[in-house]
Design brief:
The chain contains two helices and four strands. The chain is an alpha+beta fold and 109 residues long. The chain has one domain. Strands 1-4 form a two-stranded antiparallel sheet. A two-stranded antiparallel ribbon has the order 2-3.
């Protein structure tokens, strides 16, 4: 597995905004997915603020992966999660997607 890390330049300014968006939507999945925590819908890629982060992730991918494959790169699913004590995510894969990314809105380094 290859892991690339990067820091979104507007991370601090987005922290409260994204947290509020995720919190306001609340748990839409009822802990019935691999995520055993409060999880939004799968279509957060439609949200303008999530889209900015997705675009940043795709740009990072294009800078880090050489040679970068031809064709369009796009996001098929994106969601937000709020973990509380005891919550977790089961190990899983995102097949058939070639790449996945995680953006931590507010996490301890």
């Amino acid at each position: 597995m290859v892991v690339h890390t990067n820091v979104y330049p507007k991370a601090e300014g987005f922290k409260e905004l994204l947290t509020n968006i995720i919190r306001d939507l609340g748990d839409q999945q009822n802990h019935e997915t691999n995520v055993k925590a409060d999880m939004t819908t799968w279509d957060m890629y439609k949200n303008e603020y999530f889209k900015l982060i997705i675009d940043f992730a795709i740009d990072t991918l294009k800078q880090e992966v050489h040679p970068y494959p031809t064709g369009e790169t796009y996001c098929t699913d994106a969601w937000g999660v709020i973990y509380k004590t005891g919550d977790n995510t089961n190990p899983h894969a995102h097949w058939p997607s070639l790449w996945s990314f995680i953006y931590y809105v507010d996490a301890c380094p």
